[in-house]
Amino acid sequence: MKCPVCRTKQLKSVTLEEHLNAKTCSQCEGNWIASEDYQKWLDQQEETLPEKEPEVSFDIKDNTKAKLCPQCDRILIKYKVGHGVDFFLDHCNSCNGVWFDKNEWDALKERNLHDEVHYMFTKSWQKKIRDEEIREMLNKMYVSKFGKDSYEEAKRIREWLQEQPETMTLLAFLSDEDPYQL
Ligand SMILES: [Zn+2]
Ligand SMILES: [Zn+2]
Of all helices (H) and strands (E), which one includes residue 35? Predict the structure, then answer.
């Protein structure tokens, strides 16, 4: 089995974690985890660990060039991890194996996201990331349109409005040029 990054370099078997077998490249230090090896390891885990903030940061050079699956030669598809993680994972949609560039596994482990890798390639995980990106984009747009202070004030009023029993009437009152004319 050859390294999808270094191409000619042979991958070697390693034990990445207790009960987790992987293949590693001694040149680029990336790791390949086959679907059944990941599943076996996952079965040994008692529960999904709660996500946490990282205490250590890792130097990651997300390799952006196209890679082929070392198991079945298909093109690996890039998936965003999201949750504040800015690199992509390379996943084989055919055999479900995953390629981790150097330090990517450790960075996920530092966040307790390493036991959720199998979810990262699902539609619902990817949709959440997109929703979060849209939120972030709109938030920035509002800040630049209204200014930070006015935006904060608008959010406060919005919250207050939604708690009122007469929200729509209040809105009409606020937007009417002269609410004292019939
Ligand atoms: Zn390599
Ligand atoms: Zn494959």
Answer: helix 35-44
